Amino acid sequence: MxxxxxxxxxVEVAPRDGLQNEKALIATADKLELIHRAIRAGxxxxxxxSFVNPRxxxxxxxxxxxxxGLPSRDDVTYIGxxxxxxxxxxxxxxxxxxxxxxxxxxxxxxxxxxxxxxxxGSVDAAREVIxxxxxxxxxxxxxxxxxxxxxxxGEVGEDRVIAMALALAEAGPVEIGLADTxxxxxxxxxxxxxxRIRRELPDMALRVHFHNTRGTGLANVWTAVAQGVSTVDxxxxxxxxxxxxxxxxxxxxxxxxxxxxxxxxxxxGLDLDSLIATNGWLxxxxxxxxxxxxxxxxxxxxxxxxxxxxENG
Length: 313
Ligand code: ZN
Known about the structure:
The protein is α/β, with parallel strands linked by helices. The protein has one domain: Alpha-Beta Barrel (TIM Barrel), CATH 3.20.20.70. Helix content is about 40%, strand content about 15%. The chain has helices at about 15-20, 30-40, 65-70, 85-95, 110-115, 120-135, 160-170, 185-200, 215-225, 255-265, 270-285, 300-305; strands spanning about 10, 45-50, 75-80, 100-105, 140-145, 175-180, 205-210, 230-235. An 8-stranded parallel β-sheet has the order 1-8-7-6-5-4-3-2. α5 packs across α6 (about 120-135) and α8 (about 185-200) packs parallel to α9 (about 215-225). The relative contact order is 0.14. The model has no long low-confidence stretch (mean pLDDT about 95). Zinc ion binds near residues 17, 179, 209 and 211.
């Protein structure tokens, strides 16, 4: 147990962030099977689709069809990711989305590439999305993308992220997420940024979204939770990122995060065996081994000893 915390909430992002960069289109039925399996494993909050221009993200073109097939569950919060009012209208119109997830980007260059807006424009758009969610009787939250570094502009200053968080908080989101979109963050940086936001916005719920591109994902999760973050995004199998970019890696892996937290005395509400079974099923759908590590390893230290690691010292 760390920082007095006994549990964290996990948000499953495999159906959206996990799949969206896959070049081969995944069948709607397989997306729904993934969602069913995540719920059976205990997931109660999930990004199920992104309501963006299908020409920009073809993998998400079936967002409405996915929503139509969602299991009717009062105990599961389905999140639709939206970039603007048009996306919000689409998500609300499905009648199946419980929460709109808006995105603001910390730098102008990335904001232009991602959603054809300046960084400030993306803050305004997110505030509008949050207002639309509230008007429609849903909840709205927002993620600050590239909060730990930008693929175009490099370092992102803490002051910029804090200013965005303060402006976004005025719109009344139920939570603010900090995303390390390109996986450059490190634990010291996470501790610094989360600590500052907690001081500036002590009552705001915080969520973190890490990619494991440089192997710092799990350390960043642990650090964020120790700093008081209540919610962690993760993707079954560690799916996500671009499979065609050398060195690119996916989201932090749900099974790996669950293994780390649960063995550290922090409950996640998720069943590791079910997640590992889902990893196996998903690997079959994708036709490749997924990056997550726990699913490929023996489950207990004792099993590791009996599989012959001892001679390696
Ligand atoms: Zn991501």
